[in-house]
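Hey L., structure's done. Input below.
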Amino acid sequence: MLSERRLQVLRAIVQDYVGTEEPVGSKALTERHNLGVSPATVRNDMAALEDEGYIAQPHTSAGRIPTDKGYRLFVDKLAEVKPLTAPERRAIQNFLDGAVDLDDVVARTVRLLAQLTRQVAVVQYPSLTRSTVRHVELLSMAPARVMLVLITDTGRVEQRMVDCPAPFGEASLADLRARLNSRVAGRRFTDVPQLVQDLPEAFEPEDRGTVQTVLSTLLETLVEQTEERLMIGGTANLTRFGHDFPLTIRPVLEALEEQVVLLKLLGEAKDSGMTVRIGHENAHEGLNSTSVVSVGYGSGGEAVAKLGVVGPTRMDYPGTMGAVRAVARYVGQILAES
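Output:
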């Protein structure tokens, strides 16, 4: 374990390097920070930090920069995440409150996160598998054609056309709609198959084929694997950090184009706490020079998806973590009220 003083020196190096983009020397540290020790002691501490792999010398200058290991310790020992100012909080609320539907909420969240953090923002749509059914609507489009509309507690709306094996009257459709909602409204998606399995038996024999077809379409909608959608924004922000990427920004941009990579980066929504992955902790090679800060969001106490930012390892971690957490909280409130 590092002594408190060496931890203080590491903190100062991280803060200065993030702020100035320049390798940090012992003289600058003692001038800028009230470390309470002589420059010689600071030099000794820096030598020890370098031996233990927390800082490195990028070239022959006297300055040092934090390594992935140094940033990791800095984040793990953060006393507090930087809170947003009252005007920032009001701006978030006003911007997100104007959203008209789920797509708009996600689009606004991406724009807002990218602006607040000046990084690449990634927002996952609420997952169907972690949602509950708010309402199922059935609309007659033709004698043997029905539109099924599934509305979730997170405001997500899924529509499917159902071609029925025989004409289905309005009265039967209204009966099916009522019976269906009485069983599934407010229930978890994972519970629905069991709740509706005997529903066809409540109908006349000539209608059971149509009821079964509608139910099959509903169940297919619930288990679709294409549901894990993401929205990404602020990619242009990376160009401001060109010198933070050792060779080129290209591997980062290529990795960001792969949806599967981004979903893995954000991690499982059930791990709803704040996650910070630094440099080589990201399994994808193209992202070894980046850090990812993510957190779960949702209505109630349960996360239904993740959101976060991707940027260079030389990032303002306290500020970024504060912004990501605050935005997630507001999005959760909007979903709870929608």
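Residues 317-337 form the longest helix (21 residues). The chain has a mean pLDDT of 87.

-- N.
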